Inverse folding.
């Protein structure tokens, strides 16, 4: 008898087949088990929802798709979703209080206007470059990312990538209960409880609640966060499923807005000092309600519809700019800024999937529409007056004051509709052709409340992608893809608000390969790409006073990833991204002169990024893990005369398993206590990453 296993993994099924083979002759069996390599961010054989609406596996998708499971998040003790994403190939953190603390950079593009973030495939609208939900990893089953333009799937504003947070869903088969409790440095306490399972033959539930509180590692930087995710599954028949969900988060966040540099250098004595006012605040309150219906009309037809309502209330009151003045040896604080966002988003998405044959070839097709309505009110105290001077080594915080009242300044309304279609055709056993098309129509009504000035802009971008996958061997697939996308120029709700301006447009060509390494339970991916983004704002070369959409930037890069288990109990997950990001055509005014920035690197884009996580079970109940992240030098201004230094951070973890359901972990983040800049303002202020912190975490799952 011959037993063939395409994907090797420890499984009771394989053990049973081996035992049976001792007593009977069996036919050849080919087994493909849909599990990831241990601690893998690849999951090539795990069907996903982010790279395609057709449920294709990453190996079948002609694009760069990665994922990380909740089990691996727990193994690495990652509690913030953006911290998980930046362990994926090519991603880095570009968080600031101004973007909600959730901004990301990838493939040469930064911020929410270029890197979309979604929950279960629904895009969270961007108001003034800000998204404040989600932040906790606790209610999520996995996190998936599609790198490169994703507008054909998720609409405007995703030239760099799309990140999808997949929630834990109700279970009908069995019941799960889990909880964790963490005590850490700086008075940090973090905990969560969760449960899901059947309630009856037709009902099932899930409920996940978590909270966090910390004194913060700087004065007046305490924060408090709460999060919950609830869902009820109603399944009156095998064909019909109705899921009602409620998710919410409240975040009284840190009021840290950066550390001033002294003569362009970071002074170690200031790295734990806060320069904000005593009564500073950063508050986010997000709520999200959903109703999803899935109906299996026949073996070959599936219908899905989701209706949702999202609201976000945000409030900032801070002094946000700090500049060291050598003549006085003091720090000048300015931008006494108070801003409020009142945002609501209502939408509905419907799609129908058809499985069948086309010309004798297996074919899967999905089509549908997406509609949403957004109301956004921007309240502020523009032009943000106020100034004060403090001794950097003996800061007296003072209180927030402003000579301008905080009043509603802008009301925006965005109505969007889109029709989309995607198709996957099996040309043969080795070749798959995947194509998609999306037509959007967006109308933005904008009212300046102070002057009552009203503008209306309408845009109808058409985006698409086409790609092919060739299964060269049982272990290796090769692919190529061409895709297009759009990004907003900036401002509220992703769209330009100035007449005669349009969306920026992007296009990408990507080639890559994906494969398995059965001998070491491994997976690997490699890709090479070029993205061009056109119609960015640039000054007219003959008239510096005229701003036109004549600019262009591009990025060309290579990404490599490997996940494997060389020996039982020792796993490695590593990735490397190398790119060249440039302004191909870009002019700006510097003082009274027009200066070309063509050939320069965009701000805050690293051209070298690497991640490694390795863990080893050195004893039956003991596991140790070490992680490394390297982020290369980034430009701090468009002139490229100032730079944020490269940095390397180390994390470590030691876990003891009392039983299969209970474990205790000691983890250390930023082991070497490295000071590094996440972002900043030229050579005057850096937003520093978190210092070394130690956490003790107990987890139970039954």
């Amino acid at each position: 008898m011959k037993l063939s296993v395409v994907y090797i993994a420890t499984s009771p099924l394989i053990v049973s087949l081996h035992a049976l083979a001792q007593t009977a002759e069996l036919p050849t069996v080919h087994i493909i088990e849909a599990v990831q390599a241990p601690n893998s961010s690849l999951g090539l054989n795990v069907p996903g929802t982010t790279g395609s609406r057709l449920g294709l596996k990453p190996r079948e998708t002609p694009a760069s798709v990665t994922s990380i499971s909740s089990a691996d998040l727990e193994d690495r003790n990652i509690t913030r979703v953006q911290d998980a994403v930046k362990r994926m190939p090519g991603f880095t953190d570009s968080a600031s209080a101004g973007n909600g603390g959730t901004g990301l950079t990838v493939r040469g593009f930064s911020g929410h206007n270029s890197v979309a973030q979604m929950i279960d495939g629904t895009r969270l609208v961007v108001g003034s470059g800000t998204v404040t939900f989600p932040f906790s990893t606790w209610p999520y089953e996995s996190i998936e990312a599609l790198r490169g333009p994703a507008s054909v799937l998720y609409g405007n504003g995703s030239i760099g990538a799309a990140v999808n947070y997949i929630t834990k869903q109700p279970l009908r088969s069995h019941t799960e209960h889990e909880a964790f409790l963490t005590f850490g440095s700086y008075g940090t306490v973090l905990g969560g409880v969760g449960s899901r399972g059947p309630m009856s033959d037709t009902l099932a539930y899930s409920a996940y609640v978590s909270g966090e509180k910390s004194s913060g590692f700087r004065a007046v930087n305490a924060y408090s966060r709460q999060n919950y995710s609830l869902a009820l599954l109603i399944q009156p028949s095998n064909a019909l499923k109705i899921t009602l969900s409620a998710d919410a988060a409240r975040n009284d966040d840190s009021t840290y807005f950066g550390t001033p540099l002294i003569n362009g250098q970071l002074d170690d004595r200031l790295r734990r000092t806060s320069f904000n006012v005593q009564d500073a605040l950063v508050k986010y309150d997000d709520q999200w309600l959903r109703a999803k219906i899935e109906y299996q009309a026949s073996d070959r037809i599936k219908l899905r519809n989701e209706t949702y309502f999202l609201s976000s209330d945000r409030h900032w009151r801070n002094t946000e700019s700090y500049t060291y003045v050598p003549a006085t040896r003091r720090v000048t604080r300015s931008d006494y800024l108070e801003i409020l966002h009142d945002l609501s988003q209502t939408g509905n998405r419907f799609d129908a999937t058809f499985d069948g044959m086309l010309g004798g070839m297996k074919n899967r097709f999905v089509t549908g529409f997406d509609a949403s309505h957004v109301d956004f009110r921007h309240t502020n105290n523009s032009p943000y007056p106020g100034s004060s001077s403090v001794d950097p080594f003996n800061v007296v915080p003072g209180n927030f004051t402003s000579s301008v009242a905080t009043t509603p300044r802008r009301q925006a309304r965005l109505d969007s509709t889109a029709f989309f279609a995607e198709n996957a055709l099996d040309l043969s056993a080795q070749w798959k052709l995947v194509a998609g098309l999306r037509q959007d129509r967006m109308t933005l009504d904008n009212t300046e409340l102070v002057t009552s000035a009203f503008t209306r802009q309408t845009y109808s971008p058409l985006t698409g992608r086409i790609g092919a996958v060739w299964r060269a061997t049982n272990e290796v697939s090769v692919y190529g893809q061409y895709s297009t996308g759009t990004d907003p120029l900036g401002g509220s709700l992703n769209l330009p608000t100035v007449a005669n301006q349009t969306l920026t447009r992007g296009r990408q060509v990507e080639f890559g390969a994906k494969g398995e390494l059965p001998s070491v339970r491994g997976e690997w991916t490699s890709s090479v790409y070029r993205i061009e983004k056109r119609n960015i704002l640039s000054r007219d070369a003959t008239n510096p006073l005229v701003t036109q959409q004549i600019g262009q930037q591009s990025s060309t890069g290579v990404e490599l990833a490997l996940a494997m288990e060389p020996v039982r109990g020792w796993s490695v997950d590593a990735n490397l991204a190398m790119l060249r990001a440039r302004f191909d055509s870009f002019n700006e005014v510097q003082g009274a002169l027009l200066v070309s920035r063509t050939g320069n690197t965009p701000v805050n884009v690293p051209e070298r990024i690497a991640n490694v996580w390795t863990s080893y079970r050195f004893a039956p109940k003991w596991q140790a893990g070490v992680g490394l992240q390297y982020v290369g030098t980034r430009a701090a201004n468009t002139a490229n005369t100032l730079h944020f230094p490269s940095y390397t951070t180390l994390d470590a973890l030691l876990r003891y398993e009392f039983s299969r359901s209970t474990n205790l972990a000691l983890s250390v983040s930023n082991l070497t206590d490295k000071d590094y800049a996440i972002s900043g303002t030229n050579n005057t202020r850096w937003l520093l990453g978190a210092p070394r912190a130690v956490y003790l975490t107990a987890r139970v799952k039954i």
Q: What stands out?
A: The mean pLDDT is 89. The longest helix spans residues 12-21.
